[in-house]
């Protein structure tokens, strides 16, 4: 599960006031919920895009700290995809990036840079 922070001074509930409908709009119908760190995240068991097998996404709540976006994309093996499904791969990447940009206010480059900084700042992380 990856967790994403919002930009400084922004909050997830302000960026996406209705997480359930936003998730359904981007990825398909919600089949249920799954617990992660005490928060219930939405499970999309049959995503609209055939590249995804399953998606778990939602707000990870922290006491005394800003909430984060928790996301886990389970993708099918590209060797198992047919020609039509391979064409959907670009749409899958766009859907992920567009959703993460809307939720966090950070584009892919900013998210990578933030991840690098968090790894560099972690004294327990061995490189």
Structure description:
The structure is a single chain. A hairpin with a 2-residue loop joins strand 2 and strand 3. With 127 residues, the chain is of the alpha+beta class. The protein has helices at 12-15, 19-27, 83-104, 108-121; strands spanning 2-4, 32-36, 39-44, 52-60, 68-75. 39% of the residues lie in helices and 24% in strands. The longest helix is centred in the last third of the chain and has 22 residues, at 83-104.
Helix content: 25-40%
Structural class from helices and strands?
A: alpha+beta
Strand content: 15-25%
Order of helices and strands: EHHEEEEHH
CATH topology: TATA-Binding Protein
Poorly predicted segments: none
Domain count: the total is 1
Radius of gyration: 15 Å
Report the total helices.
Answer: 4
Give the mean pLDDT: 87
CATH architect. name: 2-Layer Sandwich
CA(first)-CA(last) distance = 20 Å
SSE blueprint:
Elements: E1 2-4, H1 12-15, H2 19-27, E2 32-36, E3 39-44, E4 52-60, E5 68-75, H3 83-104, H4 108-121
Antiparallel strand pairs: 1-5, 2-3, 3-4, 4-5
Question: Which descriptors apply to this entry?
Answer:
globular; 39% helix; TATA-Binding Protein; single chain; five-stranded antiparallel sheet; alpha+beta; 127 residues
């Amino acid at each position: 599960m990856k967790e994403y922070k919002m930009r400084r001074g922004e909050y997830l509930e302000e960026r996406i006031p209705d997480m359930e409908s936003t998730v359904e709009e981007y990825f398909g119908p919600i089949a249920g919920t799954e617990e992660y760190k005490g928060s219930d995240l939405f499970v999309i068991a049959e995503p609209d895009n055939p590249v995804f097998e399953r998606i778990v996404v939602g707000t990870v709540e922290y006491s005394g700290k800003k909430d984060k976006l928790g996301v886990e994309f389970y993708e099918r093996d590209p060797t198992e995809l047919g020609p039509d499904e391979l064409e959907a791969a670009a749409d899958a990447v766009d859907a992920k990036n567009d959703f993460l940009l809307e939720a966090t206010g950070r584009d892919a480059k900013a998210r990578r840079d933030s991840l690098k900084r968090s790894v560099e700042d972690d004294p327990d992380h061995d490189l």
